[in-house]
Amino acid sequence: MKVSHIEHLGIAVKNLEEAIPYWENVLGLKCYNIEEVADQKVRTAFFKVGQTKIELLEPTDEESTIAKFIEKRGEGIHHLAFAVEGVEDALADAESKGIRLIDKAPRGGAEGLSIAFLHPKSTLGVLTELCEDKHNKQ
Ligand code: ZN
Question: How far does residue 44's CA lie from ligand 1's centre (Å)?
């Protein structure tokens, strides 16, 4: 697969309203989008650092994977997302190299991205997201 850059870092937080002031007031970044992703049971807040984004993830339901992550490991870095050309091909490539996939096919994520996750058991513990912005090529 061809990774062009780190698209974003996903960070699990208990509460967006409590987390955003740190990113804005201490780091001087600006939250430019807040979006709920219903099928993932999260609310997300986005910041830009160069061409990489920070995606804060707040669970909207106890059954959310983010709620379970926070319960188990506390708030903190949840996943690393790489921008790739062609998520479908990248998934097939990873699978052919013995990587376990969480998503067999790309699905819709926040910010209109096409996304898919690789299983952390196959990626040395780092939950890895592959994503592609089909509408807004960088
Ligand atoms: Zn993500």
Answer: 9
